[in-house]
Amino acid sequence: MGRCKQKDRERKRAAEGCASMFNFVSKKPRVPDEGSASLVGTSASNDEDGCLHAERSNDDQLKTQSIYTGPQVSSYDIGKVIQATMSHTEIDEAINNMSPGDKYMMLKNHVKPGSDYIFPKTYTGGCYRSFKLSWLQEFNWMVYSQNVDGVFCLGCSLFCTNRSAKGSFVTRPFTAWQKKAEKCREHQSSKYHQEALQLKDEFLSSMEKPAANVRTLLDKRKADNVRNNREVVKAVAETVLYCGRQCIALRGHVETPNEERNPGNFLRLLQLVANHNETVKNHLASPMMKNATYISPQTQNEILDIMGNDFILSGLVTEIKEAKFYSILADEVTSHNIEHMAFCVRFVDRESNIREEFLTFVPLSHTTGVYLAKTILQTIEKIGLDPSNIRGQGYDGAANMSSQNVGVQAEIKKRYEV
Ligand SMILES: [Zn+2]
């Protein structure tokens, strides 16, 4: 019994000694040098689990020593971003609000306690414990936050894909020093940790060598392709437009560039453009995709349709609507054994010029007056004009057009009293 009482007394003296020392230091925290950690507590040696060999004291102040949170703490401290009072949503928001530059600086400049740093002590697991500096070398993914006296996995905190389901090291600091070995090994063997570290490495690579990053290279290749294709399509469209303005046929006897025989105005002119444009030249010599040469007759016709309908026709319709009233002019024409109707309008433009403009060709399956009148009215409505604003009709002398009983003009007159 006497020996037990003596041991109790020795333990009590040891705890009281620690308490007086902790109180003294916690009242006068040392200000750290720039770039090094703040100094709190005692430099007493401890074990691998952070135990300081001090037993529990009756003094409540000893249960958890004060943590230094003064302005001397480095600004790159994940414990300042992820705070104890924050919900998972708020943590997600705080991390997502960090710019790539913020994350990079956090990764590269996170505060590291210096060798003279004295870590705060906490009564946990049956004795006073504190973080050990050597743990940062043992687990290189770990960072120590002076702000909260706890450790985080910086990679997981910044790059974990499902942060809300995680706890210690990710959304809250790990401080259970007595379980350090078990919990750290458990964390570093987890799948989400490995994935987060991979994302962290990719991020650092993209920040430090943007030109070498695979995603960046793919994005650049894609952007280059888009730019080159636009340049080619622009050259093709301008060539088609030139032929249209000059009223010259686009196609010749063959449809291949560099052909001895006449390949037509379009291909010859495009070849001329290619002689002064490397992108077009490379495209004609070796297109990226054989089914996307942009020079086929189909592409030429599509470009003509777009230019004719979306630009020229819509511009004319706008002008005719401004004039309000107009006359219609129509005549039949046969092309490749197919009957067509050439449809024109006559109107006075905003500068008081009398203009006659061709609007469109309409293929015909019949040539009776009733059918033609119906086709004309459908065409007028299709291009966006109001048939009730027709004030005149002009046709040739054919009976199906001009007959006072069965001609087009009679049919339209019946409906709109033109
Ligand atoms: Zn991790």
Structure description:
- This protein is of the alpha+beta class and 418 residues long.
- It has helices at 2-27, 78-81, 88-96, 100-109, 134-138, 154-159, 180-188, 191-208, 214-245, 265-274, 278-285, 297-323, 369-382, 399-402, 408-416; strands at 122-124, 127-129, 142-145, 150-153, 326-335, 338-348, 354-363, 390-394.
- The chain has three domains: 2-208, no CATH class; 214-295, no CATH class; 321-416, 2-Layer Sandwich (Nucleotidyltransferase, domain 5), CATH 3.30.420.
- Strand 6 (338-348) and strand 7 (354-363) form a beta hairpin.
- Helix 9 packs across helix 10 (265-274) and helix 13 packs across helix 15.
- The chain starts with a helix and ends with a helix.
- Residues 12-45 and 54-72 have low confidence and may be disordered.
- Bound molecules: zinc ion.
